[in-house]
Amino acid sequence: MVLAEMGGRIIGALQNLSNATIIDEKVLTECLNEISRALMSADVQFKMIGTMQSNIKKTVNLDDRAAGHNKRKIIQQAVFNELCNMLDPGKPAFVPKKGKPNVIMFVGLQGSGKTTTCTKYAFNYQKKGWKPALVCADTFRAGAFDQLKQNATKAKIPFYGSYTETDPVKIAQEGVERFKKENCDLIIVDTSGRHKQEASLFEEMRQLAEVTNPDLVIFVMDSSIGQAAFDQAQAFKQSVAVGAVIVTKMDGHAKGGGALSAVSATKSPIIFLGTGEHMDEFEAFETKAFVSRLLG
Ligand code: GDP
């Protein structure tokens, strides 16, 4: 598991620091280089690593601190804080308001785990007494509607879709309208993906957002996409107002690096993690817990 490996390397770097009798500029630089290599191998963007390095150096500010301060603790804390900062876009995600018809649109490439995540998200709120509904606006992938229908039925969540209609915009509009009339308070729109970023996909997302007027657009990202995360997230952000990120497949060979890039590219927080194929394998995102796990 890459997260554990990365944690191990960072811990190693901090331990080397603990073993050094004197913590001077050279020891700090070596330690930061080791941490950077670990972050790079976990696909954190090179540019972000550079920023992190210089921020840590500024925080630690070895020369200016009076003797007697615990420099190791200061450095460890600075690394922890900096990783937390990289995951914090500075503004919270939209929080659905109970009793109102919140429209949540999911976007992401094909295979990212979007359809699965839509149901997990709905199920998570349903357990808390909400009235969610699912709309399948994916007419691109054969079997998409059947998959959503199957998931929704299992969770006893109302759904809307069509086997014959080929216009996703029409389906989305009809589905959202219907569930608004039925007083659903969480109307989730699952959209189509493609294998790669394509102009037609983004135009479709733009049109879907126009007709459904979502309160929140969630970008779903497979944790294993690595360095591709930044461009992918940015491409979606440029066509629709992405306001939150969900990272899936954290149970697999998950690389934490992509998550950091997605936050940076969309300027949006991660709100949940997908941790398995089942409906309840879904966790609320906790920055400190995530970083602690990252550090081992
Ligand atoms: P979509 O094309 O983006 O709608 O992706 P799907 O929801 O169809 O998911 C693609 C595959 O990833 C399916 O086999 C899902 O069961 C699987 N999947 C989705 N989320 C997770 C997760 O958190 N962990 C694991 N292990 N598999 C997942």
Describe the 3D structure.
The protein is an alpha/beta fold and 296 residues long. It is 50% helix and 14% strand. The protein is built from 11 helices and 8 strands. Strands 3-2-4-1-5-6-7-8 form an 8-stranded mixed sheet, with helices on both faces. Strand 6 (242-248), helix 10 and strand 7 form a beta-alpha-beta unit. Helix 2 (25-41) runs antiparallel to helix 3 (46-60), helix 3 runs antiparallel to helix 4 and helix 9 (229-239) packs parallel to helix 10 (256-266). It starts with a helix and ends with a helix. Residues 1-5 have low confidence and may be disordered. The chain binds guanosine-5'-diphosphate (GDP). The site of guanosine-5'-diphosphate has 17 residues, from helix 5.
Name some characteristics of this structure.
296 residues; alpha/beta; 11 helices; disordered N terminus; endoplasmic reticulum; RNA-binding; Signal recognition particle 54 kDa protein; 7S RNA binding; endoplasmic reticulum signal peptide binding
N- and C-termini, Cα separation: 11 Å
State the low-pLDDT regions, or none.
Answer: 1-5
State the secondary-structure class.
Answer: alpha/beta
Shape: elongated
Bound molecules: guanosine-5'-diphosphate
Order of strands, widest sheet = 3-2-4-1-5-6-7-8
Order of helices and strands: HHHHEHEHEHEHEHEHEEH
Number of discrete helical segments: 11
Helix share bin: 40-55%
Number of strands: 8
Mean pLDDT: 88
What share of the residues does DSSP label as strand, in percent?
5-15%
Could you describe the largest sheet, including whether it forms a barrel? 8 strands, mixed
* Radius of gyration, in angstroms, nearest whole number: 21 Å
